């Protein structure tokens, strides 16, 4: 499902089409699916509780949610360079306990390690490639930067640029460049009725 016509139009022709629908009002009967999944989306919903309740309503068994733990966002180096980004993200991500309370009576919460070669564009995928944040296209592809004012954005980029040029970033965080995976804020929740 995808409520944005623009994003639906960008889907590849060889994949199943996305339905024009929102999580808060699913167009399916109760218990329509064995399992349902929401991936890196709950922070975008207008009413998280209603959306998760809808997922629980249409799932006979598992409700799976891939999201971020706001309490763990400061594990990564951008917290030093752009604390405004971390603060914006923390406000957007619902608490893991809140999500768990809605998606099931038994909920398994797992930390998902991020591999060094992850190609998704969320912030933590660049844990070993800080230079990517110097590219305005990378920042534009991450919705969190929309919540950081231009002055803070500029300051963060210039501090990062200077830290990379001087070697200060590598002195402090260089070990990340060869670390096979990063244990950050990505979480997988699986709730059973």
From TrEMBL:
Which InterPro entries does the entry link to? Methyltransf_11, SAM-dependent_MTases_sf
Q: Which residues form the Methyltransferase type domain?
A: 11-61
Q: Which UniProt keywords apply?
A: Methyltransferase, Transferase
What Gene Ontology terms describe what this protein does at the molecular function level? methyltransferase activity
- Gene Ontology biological-process annotations: methylation
What name goes with this protein? Class I SAM-dependent methyltransferase
- Organismal lineage: Bacteria, Bacillati, Actinomycetota, Actinomycetes, Micromonosporales
């Amino acid at each position: 499902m995808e409520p944005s016509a623009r994003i639906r139009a960008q889907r590849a022709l060889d994949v199943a089409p996305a339905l024009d629908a929102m999580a808060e009002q699913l167009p399916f009967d109760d218990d329509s699916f064995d399992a349902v999944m929401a991936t890196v989306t709950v922070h975008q919903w207008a009413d998280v509780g209603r959306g998760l309740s809808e997922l629980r309503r249409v799932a006979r068994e598992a409700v799976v949610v891939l999201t971020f733990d706001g309490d763990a966002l400061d594990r990564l180096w951008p917290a030093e360079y752009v604390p405004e980004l971390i603060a914006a993200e923390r406000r957007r991500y619902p608490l893991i306990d809140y999500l768990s309370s809605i998606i099931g009576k038994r909920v398994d919460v797992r930390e998902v390690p991020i591999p060094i070669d992850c190609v998704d564009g969320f912030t933590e995928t660049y844990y070993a490639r800080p230079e990517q944040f110097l590219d305005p296209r990378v920042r534009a592809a991450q919705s969190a930067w929309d919540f950081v004012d231009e002055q803070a954005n500029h300051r963060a980029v210039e501090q990062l640029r200077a830290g990379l040029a001087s070697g200060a970033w590598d002195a402090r965080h260089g070990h990340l460049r060869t670390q096979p995976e990063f244990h950050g804020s990505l979480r997988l929740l699986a709730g059973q009725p």
